[in-house]
Design brief:
By secondary structure, the protein is mostly helical. It contains eleven helices and three strands. It folds into two domains: 92 residues, Arc Repressor Mutant, subunit A (Orthogonal Bundle), CATH 1.10.10; 98 residues, no CATH class. The chain is 56% helix and 6% strand. A three-stranded antiparallel β-sheet has the order 1-3-2. Strand 2 and strand 3 form a beta hairpin. About 7% of the residues have low confidence.
């Protein structure tokens, strides 16, 4: 006897007798199984009413007593010694009903799994073109605003950015997901800072053409080019002397 066998037998029986079962029956029975397990699977064990009522959240002793008596009548609990009131302890034994029917529950679970699978397939199908919808791609679904916000280097005006971002078309979300990381990695010069995220969205910067540069090889700035030109002129003048 173990917890799985007891719970399986009980749920099989409950499925066949839904008109008899109440939530309190589940609560009492499964607490009895847990308590018996903690006691090392004793054949007979004390089952104090007050302790059980507190554990399962039942305040009315008559409600609890009626539920326990039902389990005795159902054949899942054997009453070895009955308590006189709510402050004394019952002595009970858990009975495994090995003849509890299982086929109906198994069929019901298999049927539910099949229907669930069909439902999932229907959810994944694209809507028809007459409705003017586009089947969402995995990339677009994964790249939520929070994903964008996490990746983008600047964290400014989050609320406004979120409003704008959520109004973007799906094809724009796909473009962002595809290009954003490369766009962030590209820096035209060493001290370059990217625009605020709201500017990025408003100006559709994902449409920018990104030059291919190797890491840490930045294009020369205007100031660098001017300085090199002056130095070259000075070197030429000195060479002609």
């Amino acid at each position: 006897m173990n917890s799985y066998e007891l719970s399986r037998a009980f749920t099989d029986w409950c499925f066949e007798n839904p008109h008899k079962v109440k939530p309190i029956h589940y609560a009492i029975f499964f607490f009895a199984v847990e308590h018996c397990n903690r006691l090392g699977w004793k054949t007979n064990f004390g089952f104090p009413s007050q302790m059980v009522m507190e554990a399962i959240g039942v305040k009315n002793w008559r409600t609890y007593s009626a539920g326990l008596n039902d389990l005795v009548d159902f054949g899942f609990i054997l009453m070895m010694e009955k308590s006189k009131n709510q402050y004394s302890s019952n002595i009970i034994a858990i009975v495994k009903k090995s003849k509890a029917p299982t086929k109906a529950l198994d069929k019901a679970l298999q049927s539910h799994s099949a229907k669930q699978g069909q439902s999932t397939v229907s959810i994944n199908k694209p809507l028809n073109k007459e409705q003017g919808t586009i089947e969402p791609t995995a990339n677009a679904l994964v790249f939520s605003f929070e994903g964008f916000w996490t990746v983008y280097p600047k964290k400014v005006a989050k609320s406004k950015c979120k409003d704008k971002y959520q109004k973007l078309k799906q094809i724009e979300l796909e473009a962002i997901h595809k290009t954003l990381r490369k766009w962030i990695e590209y820096k035209p010069f060493k001290d370059y800072t990217h625009p605020n995220p709201l500017t990025y969205i408003n100006q559709k910067r994902w449409e920018d053409e990104i030059p291919t540069t190797t890491e840490k090889q930045y294009p020369k700035t205007k100031e660098q080019l001017t300085l090199e030109s002056v130095n070259a002129q000075i070197a030429a003048m000195e060479a002609n002397k």
